[in-house]
């Protein structure tokens, strides 16, 4: 069985016929060639595969591509606007919020969601918002710094 | 080698700089192994034993072979005589271990042991076809408990070996029995260091490509050690070394678990050659948990001989190390590192450590962040606290009393090491100041008055990094680097110390830019491809900056020397008259006519005006052979609060002062420390790899292996002292594992201190809520601490100063 | 970690979904948020031949108030419930519980109906559903029926839903603010080793506990001791009965003894917190 799906990924409509068991993460990586989204645990624990699905952060290792039919997906590749990094990306760079970089795309997508709900998050709110993302390199402190940085940066941008 | 000066405040070195490797990573534009796609790519998947120990009576692969899309199905019978065996690079004398074939033969001896491999046109097809392979297993008795494995009536992991003992190893220095006889007290404890799994977020994986025309093999692998793989793989797959290229692209974390040569790398390489098509294999998380090396797993009986004033005279230990069912690259070496570092940062005159390494029907243990040193630091730091408790002394005073003085370095240990440099007192002092020690004590007293469980733990640790010289290593302690001034004046740096997240593209650029006097933007660092960096010993044991950085410095110094000769010719002066500063060569006193790198590079490659005898080009490579290891150290102080009802531990304060010698990039140093501490929080409080009594892995997924999350991490107070290492001209020591070595004992000591008013003297890791709750509920059942006076030959009875079994509430810190 | 192949069907209305389930029988499974089913399929623990995805049935996601009751569509996500202003006002226990489930990403996909129908003994929802004396509405070939919460959880991964039935909604009464949820999570997965929901009413309390037994249960021994005498002292002694009559689960993450102990501790804490919100 093949199912036709239309998924708008980072603004581009992708139309494909997929096997029902194809996961959204495989659709993004193998079908769309967007390899910035990573697979870490395959059981929706580690959050490396976090993307925004209709604006909400989800672990796309546990979403079928068929379930995402008709939806909009934003991946790490869709965060920057041309050369302008998203404030969360800037924060991760400025604050050394990444080492091996493997968890980073998912971590940043979670960060984007935190800032959407808490434009000025406390460190505790950031910790809580990152519950679904594992990092084995950084020990999280610099990631929390990075999201605080992004909040300040986005706040300044918003004020202008 | 004289101790080098601290770096100049100007320049890039010493500055917290953001990383040059980050833009590709934060844009999702980096290339990890699973991101590679080659035309005609085939996919491999492994059928693995569900049994810890079983005879493989028959394997039927016909149905899988016939499945549409399947290209090949192969078993041990097809491959084990043609490939491998997989080598161990650190064999011990009288090693008693099985031949490590690429697939299981007639026996599978751990859960996850690969039994067959399927290659198909699609990853999904390969996995589907695994279900069509039928294997007749006859389960055999499994050996799970390493101590029971030593009993005469134990089943054998490998009947042909006749014993479960893989090796026995001893380390002895000084007059151990004499010191024990002289001691006032002997304090002993049994310590467990639980099995852990590295769980890098990127699982392992590799892609192999065979160029039939050239007869050349390329293997892209998520490995820390492409150069070690290139050294070992060629013979196993029967391709000459100089036709094998290994690439470690972006690697998503290793922590020692990718410091290895794995059977899958050999098999995938072979399959690409055999099928004349590129083959990819990406580990599933279940596979990663089961068949990527585990770490730690030691049980030790430790004893220290002490005088009444807290002087530690001698230490004796017997350690049972669980190696698992076979040997990976460095499996046998890990417990020996525990032995070498067992004295910690203390002057202990005599030591004896006996290791009994056993095989069990479990995954092999090997390097995991710290690799043997966390076990040593945990043991000696627990012992120092126990000495303080048993003698009624201040644990800080006990530590200070046994520290070597700063003037005593280089310091010779009873285990035969020469600690390069150190000032343990300074790190402790700084950490105490940062922690607000007196206030912390008051806080504890206040909490205890209210019946709360509040504890403070300290660890003063030392570790060993940048191992060398080569004569003490199994495959070289050197590192290689190359620097080239391109004809445009841009700088290309190539390192053999392959990083996997540590940031050497930045820190090595800082080193090179400073030494060459060029803007850092002009420097590019290449790594991780044996065709680009032909030699290297890669990244493990916190070695990259100390050794790889030095190889770059040496290369630059060669280039500068050559450039001076060239500049002298161009400026019509003698080489000794040429000065070099801030990227400019000039005749001393005549800076106006200085030549920059671009001009010199142009001359060097166009080569029309070279002085006689000078080769064209501006490139140099170097092997740095270290004279000694480095010995980073520091102090970690932790305060914890325990929920008396649930046993839940909360870290209330965390202070770390680490001394890794000179720091190239303090921001990266901080990142390494924070990451290392997180691994320690995991080991101290909840991580554990658990097999049941049948050898089934119970922690085979992230759903069952608990790792720290952001909510488990306190806001750290981090500081450093700088005691340059004399072991390399950069004066750096290494920082990749320090957090994992220093933090676990500090956290454990804090938790046990919190429980001490209840009479708890020791509790084994991990200090999970349930384990802590059990100790609270039944302190009498916690592990015993043996403490006894030593009968003196000239006395009729042992001294009556013993405080056996009496808990000291609060101590007197 | 690759699920076995299956057919995927996506009805637009509930009646169609019921029809598809009837047609495919035991081969079919209902797909809600997929956060339990898809991992189970990847691990080979479930191998349905047909998935009937409820994701496009709009009526299943609504949260509405009527006649002192709030009806929550089975496909409402945990995050929908956590951030529902209506529920925060009218049934604050549910948003409190929702916020303790898994993590944010999981809450964005996982659904209350999917979780309840899965009946994982370590799931959070059964505790408040029992404590609130909710009603569960099922739709099947025989039409609609209402199942009382106390009859819904039958056994490990087993509910009172009949073959071919789909959970349509959960109805909970409007409550006061005197409610609380206390949870001790399994460190790795976030599931409940013990979760206690408490609802305090004038002179009585209802307590339900998940994670401890093979199915969630009402702590009736606790409740009976508090009937007519709610006080801090009474709570402390009543909470000791929290695991009475229950055979606690034991696994890698917690022994039976510890689970029972946590039930007692968290029952006391949940009741104390709920009382403090009175």
User: What do the pLDDT scores of chain C average to?
Assistant: 96
Radius of gyration of chain C, CA atoms, in whole angstroms: 18 Å
Coarse morphology of chain C: globular
Profile the largest sheet of chain C: 5 strands, antiparallel
The chain pair with the largest interface is: A-B, 54 and 57 residues
The number of helical runs of chain C is 12
How is this structure best described in words?
- The complex is a heterotrimer of chains A (160), B (813) and C (278).
- With 160 residues, chain A is α+β, with helices and mostly antiparallel strands.
- Helix content of chain A is 35%, strand content 16%.
- Chain A is built from five helices and five strands; from the N terminus they run ββαβββαααα.
- Chain A has helices spanning 24-31, 87-94, 104-117, 123-129, 141-159; strands at residues 3-9, 12-18, 50-53, 56-59, 72-74.
- In chain A, a hairpin with a 2-residue loop joins strand 3 and strand 4 (56-59).
- The termini of chain A are far apart.
- The radius of gyration of chain B is 28 Å and the shape is globular.
- Chain B starts with 21 loop residues before the first helix and ends in a 24-residue tail after the last strand.
- Chain B is built from 19 helices and 29 strands.
- In chain B, the strands form seven sheets. Chain B has a seven-stranded mixed beta sheet, sandwiched between helices. A six-stranded mixed beta sheet of chain B has the order 7-15-14-13-8-29. Chain B has a four-stranded mixed beta sheet with strand order 18-26-27-28, sandwiched between helices.
- The termini of chain C are far apart.
- Chain C contains twelve helices and 14 strands.
- With 278 residues, chain C is α+β, with helices and mostly antiparallel strands.
- Chain C has helices at 14-24, 37-42, 78-82, 85-90, 93-98, 104-109, 112-118, 126-131, 149-152, 220-226, 232-239, 256-276, and strands at 7-9, 28-31, 50-53, 63-66, 69-73, 135-140, 143-148, 153-155, 158-159, 166-173, 179-185, 192-201, 204-210, 217-218.
- The model of chain C has no long low-confidence stretch (mean pLDDT 96).
- Chain C has a five-stranded antiparallel beta sheet with strand order 4-5-10-6-7.
- Chain C is globular.
- Chains in contact: A-B, A-C, B-C.
- At the A-B interface, helix 2, helix 3, helix 4 and helix 5 of A face helix 1 and helix 17 of B.
């Amino acid at each position: 069985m093949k199912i036709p799906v239309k998924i708008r990924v980072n603004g581009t409509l992708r139309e494909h016929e997929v096997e029902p068991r194809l996961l959204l993460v495989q659709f993004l990586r193998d079908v769309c060639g967007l390899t910035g989204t990573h697979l870490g645990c395959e059981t929706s624990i580690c959050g490396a595969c976090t993307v925004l699905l209709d604006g909400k952060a989800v672990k796309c290792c546990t979403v079928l591509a068929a379930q995402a039919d008709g939806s909009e997906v934003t991946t790490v590749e869709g965060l920057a606007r041309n050369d302008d990094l998203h404030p969360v990306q800037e924060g991760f760079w400025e604050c050394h919020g990444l080492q091996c970089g493997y968890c980073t795309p998912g971590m940043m997508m979670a960060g984007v969601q935190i800032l959407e709900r808490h434009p000025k998050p406390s460190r505790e709110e950031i910790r809580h918002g990152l519950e679904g993302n594992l990092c084995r390199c950084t020990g999280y402190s610099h990631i929390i710094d990075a999201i605080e940085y992004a909040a300040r940066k986005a706040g300044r941008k918003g004020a202008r | 080698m004289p101790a080098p000066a601290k770096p100049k405040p100007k320049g890039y070195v010493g500055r917290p700089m953001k990383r040059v490797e980050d833009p590709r990573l934060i844009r999702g534009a980096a290339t990890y192994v699973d991101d590679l796609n080659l035309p005609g790519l085939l996919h491999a998947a492994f059928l693995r034993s569900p049994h810890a120990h079983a005879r493989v009576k028959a394997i039927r692969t016909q149905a899988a072979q016939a499945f549409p899309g399947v290209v090949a199905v192969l078993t041990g019978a097809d491959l084990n005589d043609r490939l491998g065996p997989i080598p161990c690079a650190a064999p011990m004398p009288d090693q008693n271990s099985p031949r490590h074939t690429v697939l299981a033969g007639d026996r599978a001896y751990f859960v996850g042991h690969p039994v067959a491999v399927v290659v198909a046109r699609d990853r999904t097809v390969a996995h589907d076809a695994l279900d069509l392979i039928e294997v007749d297993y006859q389960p055999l008795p499994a050996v799970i408990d390493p101590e029971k494995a030593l009993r005469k009536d134990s089943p054998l992991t490998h009947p042909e070996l006749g014993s479960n003992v893989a090796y026995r190893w001893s380390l002895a220095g000084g007059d151990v029995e004499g010191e024990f006889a002289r001691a006032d007290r002997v304090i002993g404890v049994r310590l467990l260091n639980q099995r852990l799994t590295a769980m890098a977020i990127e699982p392992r994986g590799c892609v192999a490509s065979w160029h039939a025309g050239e007869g050349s093999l390329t293997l892209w692998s998520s490995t820390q050690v492409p150069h070690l793989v290139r050294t070992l793989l060629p013979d196993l797959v029967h391709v000459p070394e100089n036709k094998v290229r290994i690439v470690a692209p972006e690697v998503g974390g290793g922590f020692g678990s990718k410091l290895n040569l794995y059977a899958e790398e050999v098999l995938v390489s072979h399959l690409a050659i055999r099928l004349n098509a590129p083959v990819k294999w990406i580990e599933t998380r279940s596979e990663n948990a089961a068949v990527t090396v585990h770490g730690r797993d030691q049980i030790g009986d430790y004893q220290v001989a002490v005088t009444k004033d807290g002087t530690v005279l001698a230490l004796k230990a017997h350690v049972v190390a669980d190696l698992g069912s076979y040997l990976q690259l460095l499996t046998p070496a890990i417990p020996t590192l525990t032995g070498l570092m067992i004295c910690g940062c203390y002057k202990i005159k005599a030591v004896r450590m006996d290791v009994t390494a056993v095989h069990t029907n479990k995954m092999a243990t090997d390097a995991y962040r710290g690799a043997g040193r966390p076990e040593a630091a945990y043991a000696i730091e627990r012992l120092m606290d126990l000495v303080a408790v048993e003698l009624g002394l201040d644990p800080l005073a006990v530590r200070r009393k046994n520290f070597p003085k700063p003037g005593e370095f280089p310091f010779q240990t009873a285990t035969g090491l020469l600690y390069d440099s150190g000032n343990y007192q300074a790190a402790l002092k700084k950490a105490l100041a940062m922690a607000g020690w007196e206030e912390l004590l008051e806080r504890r007293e206040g909490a205890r008055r209210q019946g709360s469980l509040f504890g403070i733990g300290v660890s003063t640790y030392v570790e060993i990094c940048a191992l060398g010289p080569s004569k003490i290593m199994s495959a070289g302690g050197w590192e290689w680097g190359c620097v080239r001034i391109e004809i445009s004046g841009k700088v290309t740096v190539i390192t053999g110390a392959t990083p996997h997240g540590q940031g050497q593209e930045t820190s090595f650029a800082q080193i090179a830019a400073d030494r060459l006097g060029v803007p850092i933007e002009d420097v590019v660092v290449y790594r991780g491809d044996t065709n680009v960096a032909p030699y290297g010993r890669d990244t493990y044991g916190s070695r990259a900056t100390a050794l790889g950085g030095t190889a770059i410095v040496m290369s630059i110094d060669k280039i500068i020397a050559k450039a001076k000769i060239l500049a002298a010719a161009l400026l019509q002066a003698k080489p000794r008259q040429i000065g070099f500063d801030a990227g400019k060569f000039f005749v001393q006193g005549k800076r106006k006519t200085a030549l920059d790198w671009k001009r010199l590079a142009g001359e060097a490659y166009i080569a029309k005006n070279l002085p006689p005898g000078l080769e064209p080009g501006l490139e140099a490579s170097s092997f740095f052979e270290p004279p000694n290891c480095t010995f980073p150290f520091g102090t970690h102080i932790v305060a914890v609060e325990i929920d008396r009802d649930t046993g839940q531990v909360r870290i209330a304060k965390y202070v770390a002062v680490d001394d890794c010698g000179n720091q190239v990039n303090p921001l990266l140093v901080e990142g390494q420390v924070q990451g290392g501490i997180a691994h320690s929080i995991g080991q101290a409080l909840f991580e554990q790899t658990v097999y049941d009594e049948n050898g089934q892995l119970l922690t085979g997924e992230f759903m069952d292996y608990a790792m720290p999350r952001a909510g488990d991490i306190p806001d750290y107070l981090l500081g450093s002292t700088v005691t340059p290492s004399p072991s390399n001209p950069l004066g750096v020591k290494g920082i990749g594992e320090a957090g994992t070595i220093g933090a676990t004992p500090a956290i454990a000591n804090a938790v046990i201190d919190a429980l001490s008013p209840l009479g708890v003297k020791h509790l084994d890791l991990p200090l999970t809520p349930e384990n802590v709750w059990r100790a609270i509920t039944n302190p009498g059942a916690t592990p015993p601490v043996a403490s006894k006076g030593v009968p003196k030959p000239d006395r009729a009875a042992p001294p009556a100063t013993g405080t056996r079994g009496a808990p000291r509430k609060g101590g007197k810190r | 970690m690759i699920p076995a192949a299956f057919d995927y069907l996506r009805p637009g209305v509930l009646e169609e979904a019921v029809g598809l389930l009837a047609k495919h029988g035991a081969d079919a499974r209902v797909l809600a948020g997929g956060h339990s089913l898809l991992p189970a399929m990847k691990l080979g623990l479930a191998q349905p031949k047909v998935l009937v995805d409820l994701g496009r049935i709009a009526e299943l996601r609504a949260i509405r108030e009527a006649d002192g009751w709030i009806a929550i569509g089975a496909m409402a996500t945990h995050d929908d419930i956590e951030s529902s202003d209506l529920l925060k006002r009218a049934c604050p226990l549910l948003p409190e519980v929702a916020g303790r489930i898994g993590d944010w990403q999981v809450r964005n996909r996982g659904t209350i109906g999917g979780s309840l129908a899965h009946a994982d003994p370590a799931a959070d929802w059964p505790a408040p559903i029992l404590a609130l004396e909710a009603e569960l509405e099922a739709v099947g070939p025989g039409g609609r029926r209402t199942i009382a919460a106390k009859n819904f959880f039958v056994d490990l991964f087993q509910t009172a839903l009949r073959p071919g039935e789909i959970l349509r909604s959960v109805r909970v009464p409007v409550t006061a603010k005197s409610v609380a949820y206390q949870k001790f999570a399994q460190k790795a997965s976030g599931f409940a080793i013990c979760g206690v929901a408490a609802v305090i009413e004038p002179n009585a309390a209802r307590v339900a506990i998940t994670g401890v037994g093979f199915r969630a249960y009402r702590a009736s021994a606790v409740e009976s001791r508090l009937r007519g005498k709610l006080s801090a002292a009474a709570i402390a002694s009543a909470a000791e009965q929290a695991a009475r009559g229950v055979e606690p689960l034991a696994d890698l993450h917690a022994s039976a003894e510890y689970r029972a102990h946590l039930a007692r501790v968290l029952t006391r804490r949940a009741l104390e917190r709920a009382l403090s919100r009175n």
